[in-house]
Amino acid sequence: MFQFRSKLHGLMKELTQSVSNRYLHVERKVKVNDLDINIVEGGKGEKSVLLMPGALGSSWTDFKPQIEELPKLLPNYTVISWDPPGYGKSIPPKRKWGLDFFQNDARCAVELMKALKRPKFSIIGWSDGGITGLIAAGRYVDNIEKLIIWGAGAYLIPDEVIALHKMKDVNKWSPRMREPMEKVYGEKRFAELWSEWVDAASAFYGEREGDFCKQEVEMIKAPTLILHGKKDPMIAAEHIPYLREHIKGARYHEFPEGKHNIHLRYAEEFNKLVAQFLLEN
Protein backbone atom coordinates (compact mmCIF):
# COMPACT_ATOMS: atom_id res chain seq x y z
CA MET A 1 0.00 0.00 0.00
CA PHE A 2 2.84 2.34 0.89
CA GLN A 3 4.60 1.59 -2.42
CA PHE A 4 1.38 2.26 -4.36
CA ARG A 5 0.89 5.62 -2.65
CA SER A 6 4.53 6.48 -3.23
CA LYS A 7 4.27 5.67 -6.95
CA LEU A 8 0.99 7.60 -7.24
CA HIS A 9 2.56 10.61 -5.52
CA GLY A 10 5.51 10.41 -7.92
CA LEU A 11 3.25 10.24 -10.97
CA MET A 12 1.15 13.17 -9.77
CA LYS A 13 4.29 15.22 -9.11
CA GLU A 14 5.64 14.37 -12.57
CA LEU A 15 2.32 15.27 -14.22
CA THR A 16 2.07 18.57 -12.32
CA GLN A 17 5.66 19.41 -13.27
CA SER A 18 4.94 18.58 -16.92
CA VAL A 19 1.85 20.81 -17.01
CA SER A 20 3.73 23.58 -15.19
CA ASN A 21 6.62 23.42 -17.65
CA ARG A 22 4.25 23.58 -20.61
CA TYR A 23 2.93 26.98 -19.57
CA LEU A 24 6.17 28.37 -18.13
CA HIS A 25 7.28 31.49 -19.97
CA VAL A 26 10.86 31.96 -21.15
CA GLU A 27 12.41 35.38 -21.79
CA ARG A 28 15.33 35.68 -24.20
CA LYS A 29 16.97 37.71 -26.96
CA VAL A 30 16.64 36.74 -30.63
CA LYS A 31 18.97 37.97 -33.36
CA VAL A 32 16.98 39.63 -36.16
CA ASN A 33 19.41 40.95 -38.77
CA ASP A 34 21.58 43.36 -36.73
CA LEU A 35 19.07 43.69 -33.86
CA ASP A 36 18.76 41.83 -30.56
CA ILE A 37 15.01 41.57 -30.02
CA ASN A 38 13.68 40.68 -26.57
CA ILE A 39 10.82 38.18 -26.48
CA VAL A 40 8.76 36.35 -23.87
CA GLU A 41 7.60 32.91 -24.99
CA GLY A 42 5.03 30.60 -23.40
CA GLY A 43 3.32 27.37 -24.38
CA LYS A 44 4.51 24.55 -26.63
CA GLY A 45 1.97 24.57 -29.47
CA GLU A 46 2.78 24.28 -33.16
CA LYS A 47 0.71 27.35 -34.06
CA SER A 48 1.97 30.82 -33.18
CA VAL A 49 0.58 34.13 -32.01
CA LEU A 50 2.55 37.35 -31.50
CA LEU A 51 1.55 39.99 -28.94
CA MET A 52 2.33 43.53 -30.15
CA PRO A 53 2.48 46.25 -27.45
CA GLY A 54 1.44 49.89 -27.65
CA ALA A 55 3.51 53.08 -27.74
CA LEU A 56 6.75 52.65 -25.74
CA GLY A 57 5.31 49.36 -24.55
CA SER A 58 7.00 46.06 -23.79
CA SER A 59 5.90 42.53 -23.03
CA TRP A 60 5.53 42.92 -19.27
CA THR A 61 4.21 46.50 -19.15
CA ASP A 62 1.47 45.73 -21.69
CA PHE A 63 0.64 42.02 -21.67
CA LYS A 64 1.21 40.39 -18.27
CA PRO A 65 -2.30 38.78 -18.05
CA GLN A 66 -2.00 37.50 -21.61
CA ILE A 67 1.51 36.08 -21.15
CA GLU A 68 0.40 34.26 -18.01
CA GLU A 69 -3.04 33.02 -19.09
CA LEU A 70 -3.28 32.65 -22.88
CA PRO A 71 -1.00 29.57 -23.09
CA LYS A 72 -3.48 27.75 -20.85
CA LEU A 73 -6.40 28.70 -23.10
CA LEU A 74 -4.50 27.98 -26.33
CA PRO A 75 -2.87 24.55 -25.86
CA ASN A 76 -2.03 24.25 -29.56
CA TYR A 77 -0.31 27.65 -29.65
CA THR A 78 3.02 29.11 -28.65
CA VAL A 79 2.35 32.62 -27.34
CA ILE A 80 5.13 35.10 -28.05
CA SER A 81 5.38 38.73 -26.96
CA TRP A 82 8.05 41.12 -28.19
CA ASP A 83 9.64 44.42 -27.28
CA PRO A 84 9.84 46.35 -30.59
CA PRO A 85 13.25 47.79 -31.56
CA GLY A 86 14.21 50.66 -29.25
CA TYR A 87 11.53 49.77 -26.66
CA GLY A 88 11.75 47.82 -23.40
CA LYS A 89 14.67 45.40 -23.39
CA SER A 90 15.20 45.64 -27.16
CA ILE A 91 17.65 48.48 -26.49
CA PRO A 92 20.07 49.16 -28.09
CA PRO A 93 19.35 50.47 -30.65
CA LYS A 94 17.90 53.84 -29.80
CA ARG A 95 14.37 54.10 -31.14
CA LYS A 96 14.23 55.32 -34.74
CA TRP A 97 11.35 57.49 -35.93
CA GLY A 98 10.23 58.89 -39.28
CA LEU A 99 7.10 58.25 -41.33
CA ASP A 100 8.00 54.58 -41.76
CA PHE A 101 8.40 53.56 -38.12
CA PHE A 102 5.18 51.50 -38.08
CA GLN A 103 6.16 49.80 -41.34
CA ASN A 104 9.64 49.08 -39.97
CA ASP A 105 8.12 47.46 -36.88
CA ALA A 106 5.82 45.34 -39.06
CA ARG A 107 8.71 44.13 -41.19
CA CYS A 108 10.84 43.41 -38.13
CA ALA A 109 8.01 41.42 -36.52
CA VAL A 110 7.69 39.20 -39.58
CA GLU A 111 11.46 38.74 -39.72
CA LEU A 112 11.47 37.88 -36.00
CA MET A 113 8.90 35.14 -36.51
CA LYS A 114 10.86 33.78 -39.47
CA ALA A 115 13.97 33.70 -37.27
CA LEU A 116 11.95 31.65 -34.78
CA LYS A 117 10.97 29.31 -37.64
CA ARG A 118 7.35 30.38 -37.25
CA PRO A 119 6.74 32.25 -40.52
CA LYS A 120 2.96 31.84 -40.34
CA PHE A 121 1.44 33.40 -37.25
CA SER A 122 -1.46 35.38 -35.81
CA ILE A 123 -1.25 38.85 -34.28
CA ILE A 124 -2.77 40.35 -31.14
CA GLY A 125 -2.07 44.09 -31.39
CA TRP A 126 -2.91 46.94 -29.01
CA SER A 127 -2.85 50.64 -29.91
CA ASP A 128 0.43 51.22 -31.82
CA GLY A 129 0.76 47.44 -31.94
CA GLY A 130 -2.67 47.35 -33.57
CA ILE A 131 -1.47 49.74 -36.28
CA THR A 132 1.64 47.60 -36.76
CA GLY A 133 -0.62 44.55 -36.94
CA LEU A 134 -2.80 46.15 -39.63
CA ILE A 135 0.30 46.90 -41.69
CA ALA A 136 1.73 43.42 -41.24
CA ALA A 137 -1.56 41.78 -42.22
CA GLY A 138 -1.87 44.00 -45.29
CA ARG A 139 1.74 43.78 -46.50
CA TYR A 140 2.57 40.20 -45.55
CA VAL A 141 -0.65 38.44 -46.47
CA ASP A 142 0.94 34.98 -46.72
CA ASN A 143 2.43 35.22 -43.22
CA ILE A 144 -0.51 36.43 -41.12
CA GLU A 145 -3.16 33.84 -40.27
CA LYS A 146 -5.47 35.86 -37.99
CA LEU A 147 -5.52 39.43 -36.69
CA ILE A 148 -6.91 40.80 -33.42
CA ILE A 149 -6.67 44.54 -32.73
CA TRP A 150 -8.03 47.17 -30.33
CA GLY A 151 -7.29 50.80 -29.49
CA ALA A 152 -5.98 51.41 -33.04
CA GLY A 153 -6.94 53.37 -36.13
CA ALA A 154 -5.75 53.57 -39.72
CA TYR A 155 -5.28 57.34 -39.59
CA LEU A 156 -5.06 60.37 -37.30
CA ILE A 157 -7.56 63.24 -37.08
CA PRO A 158 -6.97 66.84 -35.82
CA ASP A 159 -8.67 66.26 -32.46
CA GLU A 160 -6.34 63.35 -31.77
CA VAL A 161 -3.28 65.45 -32.58
CA ILE A 162 -4.48 68.09 -30.11
CA ALA A 163 -5.08 65.42 -27.46
CA LEU A 164 -1.61 63.95 -27.97
CA HIS A 165 0.08 67.31 -27.45
CA LYS A 166 -1.92 67.87 -24.27
CA MET A 167 -0.39 64.62 -22.98
CA LYS A 168 3.15 65.39 -24.14
CA ASP A 169 4.42 66.60 -20.74
CA VAL A 170 4.56 63.44 -18.63
CA ASN A 171 5.00 65.53 -15.47
CA LYS A 172 1.28 66.26 -15.78
CA TRP A 173 0.47 62.55 -15.66
CA SER A 174 -0.48 60.85 -12.44
CA PRO A 175 2.33 58.90 -10.69
CA ARG A 176 0.32 55.70 -11.28
CA MET A 177 0.39 56.26 -15.04
CA ARG A 178 4.09 57.14 -15.15
CA GLU A 179 5.43 54.47 -12.83
CA PRO A 180 5.45 51.39 -15.16
CA MET A 181 7.29 53.25 -17.92
CA GLU A 182 9.69 54.97 -15.55
CA LYS A 183 10.68 51.55 -14.22
CA VAL A 184 11.58 50.47 -17.75
CA TYR A 185 13.28 53.63 -19.04
CA GLY A 186 14.05 55.80 -16.02
CA GLU A 187 12.34 59.15 -15.42
CA LYS A 188 14.46 61.21 -17.82
CA ARG A 189 14.51 58.82 -20.78
CA PHE A 190 10.80 58.05 -20.47
CA ALA A 191 9.97 61.78 -20.70
CA GLU A 192 12.27 62.14 -23.72
CA LEU A 193 10.98 59.04 -25.47
CA TRP A 194 7.33 59.96 -24.99
CA SER A 195 7.94 63.46 -26.35
CA GLU A 196 9.69 61.93 -29.37
CA TRP A 197 6.75 59.57 -29.94
CA VAL A 198 4.18 62.40 -29.81
CA ASP A 199 6.16 64.36 -32.41
CA ALA A 200 6.61 61.27 -34.61
CA ALA A 201 2.92 60.35 -34.50
CA SER A 202 1.82 63.94 -35.10
CA ALA A 203 4.07 64.15 -38.17
CA PHE A 204 1.71 61.81 -39.98
CA TYR A 205 -0.97 64.48 -39.86
CA GLY A 206 1.30 67.22 -41.11
CA GLU A 207 2.99 65.20 -43.85
CA ARG A 208 0.57 62.41 -44.81
CA GLU A 209 -2.82 63.90 -43.94
CA GLY A 210 -2.90 61.60 -40.93
CA ASP A 211 -2.60 58.39 -42.94
CA PHE A 212 -0.97 55.57 -40.97
CA CYS A 213 -1.98 52.57 -43.06
CA LYS A 214 -5.15 53.08 -45.12
CA GLN A 215 -3.68 51.27 -48.11
CA GLU A 216 -2.64 48.24 -46.04
CA VAL A 217 -6.08 47.99 -44.42
CA GLU A 218 -7.63 47.49 -47.85
CA MET A 219 -5.27 44.57 -48.53
CA ILE A 220 -5.98 42.50 -45.39
CA LYS A 221 -7.22 38.97 -46.05
CA ALA A 222 -6.68 37.40 -42.64
CA PRO A 223 -9.78 36.77 -40.49
CA THR A 224 -9.92 39.81 -38.22
CA LEU A 225 -11.44 40.51 -34.81
CA ILE A 226 -11.84 44.15 -33.80
CA LEU A 227 -12.28 44.70 -30.07
CA HIS A 228 -13.23 48.10 -28.69
CA GLY A 229 -13.73 49.85 -25.38
CA LYS A 230 -16.68 52.14 -26.08
CA LYS A 231 -15.31 54.76 -23.67
CA ASP A 232 -11.77 54.68 -25.08
CA PRO A 233 -10.52 58.29 -24.77
CA MET A 234 -7.42 57.69 -26.90
CA ILE A 235 -8.99 57.10 -30.31
CA ALA A 236 -11.83 58.79 -32.16
CA ALA A 237 -15.05 56.79 -32.44
CA GLU A 238 -14.99 57.02 -36.25
CA HIS A 239 -12.07 54.59 -36.49
CA ILE A 240 -14.22 51.59 -35.62
CA PRO A 241 -16.78 51.87 -38.45
CA TYR A 242 -13.93 52.69 -40.84
CA LEU A 243 -12.08 49.47 -39.98
CA ARG A 244 -15.26 47.40 -40.04
CA GLU A 245 -16.11 48.75 -43.47
CA HIS A 246 -12.66 48.32 -45.01
CA ILE A 247 -11.58 44.96 -43.56
CA LYS A 248 -13.66 42.37 -45.34
CA GLY A 249 -15.54 40.05 -42.98
CA ALA A 250 -14.14 41.63 -39.81
CA ARG A 251 -15.87 40.66 -36.58
CA TYR A 252 -16.52 43.12 -33.80
CA HIS A 253 -16.96 42.94 -30.03
CA GLU A 254 -17.55 45.94 -27.79
CA PHE A 255 -16.85 46.44 -24.11
CA PRO A 256 -19.56 49.00 -23.15
CA GLU A 257 -17.65 50.39 -20.15
CA GLY A 258 -14.20 49.71 -21.54
CA LYS A 259 -11.54 52.33 -22.14
CA HIS A 260 -8.13 51.99 -23.84
CA ASN A 261 -6.79 49.04 -21.82
CA ILE A 262 -9.63 46.51 -22.07
CA HIS A 263 -7.13 43.62 -22.12
CA LEU A 264 -5.96 44.62 -18.64
CA ARG A 265 -9.20 45.86 -17.11
CA TYR A 266 -11.26 42.92 -18.40
CA ALA A 267 -8.43 40.41 -18.78
CA GLU A 268 -10.44 37.22 -18.18
CA GLU A 269 -13.23 38.09 -20.65
CA PHE A 270 -10.72 39.48 -23.14
CA ASN A 271 -8.53 36.37 -23.05
CA LYS A 272 -11.51 34.05 -23.55
CA LEU A 273 -12.71 36.05 -26.58
CA VAL A 274 -9.24 36.01 -28.10
CA ALA A 275 -8.79 32.29 -27.49
CA GLN A 276 -12.19 31.45 -28.95
CA PHE A 277 -11.42 33.40 -32.12
CA LEU A 278 -7.98 31.85 -32.56
CA LEU A 279 -9.22 28.29 -31.96
CA GLU A 280 -11.93 28.49 -34.61
CA ASN A 281 -11.22 26.70 -37.89
Automatic annotation (TrEMBL):
InterPro entries: AB_hydrolase_1, AB_hydrolase_fold. It comes from the Eukaryota. GO terms for molecular function: serine hydrolase activity. Residues 48-160, 171-264 form the AB hydrolase-1 domain. It holds the Pfam family Abhydrolase_1. This is AB hydrolase-1 domain-containing protein.
